Target: histidine kinase
Amino acid sequence: MHLVKIIYTKTKIDLEIIDDGIGFNEETAKRAKLNHHLGLRSMQKRIELLQGEFEIISKMNEGTIIKIVIPVENIPTREDFDYE
Model:
C-alpha cells in the first residue's frame, strides 16, 4: 500500500507519505548516501529551505513513513518569481 495524506490549514501544510514496503535501517540509508542516492536527502534540504520539518520513520519489514510540515508563510507564490 502507498498512501499520501495532505492536510492544508491556514498556517501549515502537513504531508505524510506512507509505504508499507520493506523499509530500511540507518545503515542502509548511510550506504545509499555514500553511493550518491540523494533522493531523501534532497527532499530534506528543500524542506529545510522552507523552514519546515522533515522526519523519516522506517523499520525493516514494516515500511516507511515520511512526515513533512511546511509553514504556509514560507511557501513561494507565483508573484515571488520573476518570469521576465
In short: Residues 2-74 form a domain with the Heat Shock Protein 90 fold (CATH 3.30.565.10). The radius of gyration is 15 Å. DSSP finds two helices and four strands in the chain.
